[in-house]
Fold GOLD domain-containing protein.
Amino acid sequence: MRVLLALLSLATFANSLYFHIAETEKKCFIEEIPDETMVTGNYKVQLFDPNTKGYGDYPNIGMHVEVKDPEDKVILSKLYTAEGRFTFTSNTPGEHVICIYSNSTAWFNGAQLRVHLDIQAGEHAQDYAQIAQKDKLNELQLRIRQLLDQVDQITKEQNYQRYREERFRQTSESTNSRVFYWSIAQVVVLAITGAWQMRHLRGFFEAKKLV
């Protein structure tokens, strides 16, 4: 039972942080995500006020969110308000690049922005209160639904790990093959160089009538 609970705790991830960016600066994050996994990001943007020396809300700020999959295809590109939530579902396993930047160029005279960001994936990205209300689930049924989603996420994580192991094995085999052929090429080059030097020296000695 403890092992199952440990696996369930590893099945999802959540990253909550805040960072500072300039008005026109782009900030990107890389997340390794299995395929067919829903990801949500909750964010809030605040503007630095030089009068109070602190950060405050400014609803006129717009934030652009762009997400690219491991094949560098844009799967989300949308302009949001100063506070909101974005959602996307991965179609390809691997590293997804999530970029956030302001839509303005000179509105705030190059002011600094503070962005609060909380990225969640797997069953943590689900709004179970809304699901329970929509599907009319009681507490036990909702808990079972959560456990099934967690088990499904574990399966996706395991498949992704197998995918990574296969990619690593292919890379290792390719590297070993290249090293092997490179070693053979070095031996051939050395053999040809040695033969040429021997022939050159023999010709030199014959010319000097030493042989």
